[in-house]
Design brief:
This protein is of the alpha+beta class.
Amino acid sequence: MRKPISGVTRVILALGISLVFAGAALAHHGWSGYDETKPLNLTGTIRDSGYDNPHGFVELEVAGNPAKTWHVVLAPPSRMETRGLPKEMLKTGAAATVVGYQEKTKPGELRAERITIDGKTTELR
């Protein structure tokens, strides 16, 4: 016969579970680290992409002297799929235009509000 769980054990278990969920909530950052006062419009070539949770991404090479590759944070895959941006559109070599906001402490990172590939614009937020 199993011994019933004591009140102290229940409290410890509840605290442990709460800490796990709190950690997950903190790990999914907010957007306050991005400078929404200065929208950027970048056009370039996709060099790499990811379609994983919590957010998809593209590495977008933008022409210049020198060229710069931006890490562009997209929406969660489920939202992109729902709004008509399947994984296959984020192919290496595709031309893309993104409009978004630069991360304040990571000058090579951008949070995209929208992305245009093959003439199709997808709103991400």
